[in-house]
C-alpha cells in the first residue's frame, strides 16, 4: 500500500524550500560555517577532492571559503566563513591562458579548449587572493587537472603562499609551495624558500588527468606541515624556513615563456582558510631535502 505524505507535511516542506531559495547564499551558507561534517558521503568526498585535512584533524570553523557555488564571480568575496568581509581574487596572464568560472569552482584554461583547435598555448596564468593576509594558519584547496594534447611540454600548476605585500615578494625567495604538479603526471612537490636556502620533497602516486586531490599546509611559529587527501605527508621544523611576513594564496598555471605547451585545464573546486585555534596536532610527515634557491625576478 502506498502511503502519501499529509497535506500539512507537504506544505511545511514547500515553505522550507521556498524560504531557502529566497534567502540565497547568505542564509544557506552563514558566516558560522564549520568544517565539512565527517559523515559526508564517500561519493561527495571523491567529487570534491577526497577527504580533507580539516576533517581529519578537526580544524573547526573556516575563516573563509571560496567555492563559487552560488554564482559568485572570480572577484567576489568568500561566500561563507567567520571572516567574509574581505577577500577577492585577481587574475593575471601573460600568454594565452585565462581563468573561467564554472558551476561550483573555477577553471584555469591554457587557451581555447576545443578538440581539433590549432590555437597556441603558452605563458602563465595566475589567481592571487587579496585582502586576506595571515602570518600563521592553515590553507586547503581541492583541485584536479586535465591534459588535452599529447605533443609539446606539460604545464605546471602551483598552489603557493606568497608575501601579501608585493614589496616583500623578493623574487619568490620566501614562498611556500603548497602543491606543485603537472597534468598527466603522478608527482607532487611541496617545499619552502627562505632566502638563498630552499627545502623540498617530491612524492609519487598522485594521479592526475581528472583525479581530484586536496592539498593543504599549516604554518606555525616553529613548524610547517604539508597535507594531501586528508593526511600529513611532510613537515619541517627549521626556524629559518618559517615565513616572517603575512602570506596569501596564489594559484598559477605555469608555462615556459613563449614555448608551445600541451593544452591543459585545471579545475579548482574550492579554497579555504583556517586559524590555529582548534584541531589536533598533525603527526610529523616525511623530511624535506635542503638545497639552494637562486631564481631571479
What would you call the shape? globular
Q: What is the overall number of helices?
A: 4
- What is the CATH top level name? Mainly Beta
Summarize the amount of helix as a percent range: 10-25%
Pick out the low-confidence regions: 1-49
- What is the tally of beta strands? 16
What is the fold-level CATH name, i.e. the topology? Jelly Rolls
**Gyration radius over CA:** 20 Å
Number of domains: 1
Q: What pattern of helices and strands is seen along the backbone?
A: HHHHEEEEEEEEEEEEEEEE
Biggest sheet features:
8 strands, antiparallel
Give the name of the CATH architecture: Sandwich
Mean pLDDT: 84
* Share in β-strands: 35-45%
Cα distance spanning the termini: 74 Å
Structural class: mainly beta
Give a description of the structure.
With 297 residues, the chain is mostly beta strands. It has a single domain (40-292), classed as Jelly Rolls (Sandwich). It has four helices and 16 strands. It has helices at 7-23, 25-28, 42-47, 53-57, and strands spanning 64-66, 88-93, 98-102, 105-109, 125-130, 137-147, 156-163, 176-181, 188-194, 197-203, 213-219, 224-228, 231-236, 247-254, 264-274, 289-292. Strands 1, 3, 4, 6, 11, 12, 13 and 15 form an eight-stranded antiparallel beta sheet that branches. An eight-stranded antiparallel beta sheet has the order 2-5-14-7-8-9-10-16, with no helix packed on it. The radius of gyration is 20 Å and the shape is globular. 40% of the residues are buried. Residues 1-49 have low confidence and may be disordered. Residues 1-29 form the signal peptide. This is GH16 domain-containing protein.
Amino acid at each position: 500500500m502506498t502511503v502519501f505524505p499529509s497535506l500539512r507535511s507537504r506544505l511545511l516542506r514547500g515553505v522550507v524550500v521556498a524560504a531557502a531559495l529566497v534567502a540565497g547564499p547568505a542564509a544557506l551558507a552563514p558566516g558560522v560555517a564549520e568544517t565539512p561534517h565527517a559523515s559526508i558521503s564517500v561519493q561527495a568526498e571523491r567529487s570534491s577532492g577526497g577527504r580533507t585535512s580539516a576533517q581529519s584533524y578537526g580544524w573547526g570553523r573556516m575563516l573563509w571559503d571560496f567555492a563559487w557555488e552560488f554564482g559568485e564571480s572570480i572577484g567576489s568575496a568568500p561566500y561563507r566563513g567567520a571572516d567574509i568581509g574581505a577577500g577577492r581574487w585577481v587574475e593575471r596572464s601573460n600568454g594565452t591562458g585565462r581563468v573561467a568560472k564554472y558551476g561550483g569552482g573555477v577553471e584555469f584554461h591554457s587557451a581555447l579548449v576545443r578538440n581539433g583547435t590549432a590555437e597556441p598555448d603558452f605563458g602563465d596564468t595566475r589567481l592571487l587572493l587579496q585582502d586576506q593576509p595571515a602570518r600563521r594558519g592553515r590553507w586547503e584547496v581541492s583541485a584536479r587537472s586535465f591534459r588535452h594534447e599529447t605533443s609539446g611540454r606539460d604545464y605546471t600548476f602551483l598552489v603557493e603562499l606568497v608575501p601579501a605585500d608585493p614589496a616583500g615578494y623578493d623574487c619568490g625567495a620566501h614562498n611556500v609551495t603548497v602543491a606543485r604538479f603537472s597534468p598527466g603526471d603522478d608527482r607532487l612537490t611541496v617545499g619552502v624558500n627562505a632566502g638563498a636556502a630552499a627545502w623540498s620533497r617530491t612524492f609519487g602516486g598522485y594521479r592526475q588527468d581528472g583525479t581530484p586531490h586536496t592539498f593543504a599546509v599549516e604554518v606555525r611559529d616553529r613548524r610547517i606541515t604539508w597535507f594531501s587527501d586528508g593526511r600529513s605527508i611532510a613537515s619541517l621544523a627549521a626556524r629559518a624556513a618559517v615565513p616572517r611576513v603575512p602570506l596569501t594564496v596564489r594559484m598559477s598555471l605555469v608555462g615556459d615563456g613563449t614555448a608551445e605547451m600541451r593544452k591543459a585545464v585545471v579545475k579548482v573546486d574550492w579554497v579555504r582558510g583556517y586559524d590555529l585555534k582548534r584541531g589536533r596536532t598533525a603527526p610529523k610527515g616525511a623530511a624535506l631535502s635542503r638545497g639552494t634557491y637562486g631564481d631571479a625576478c
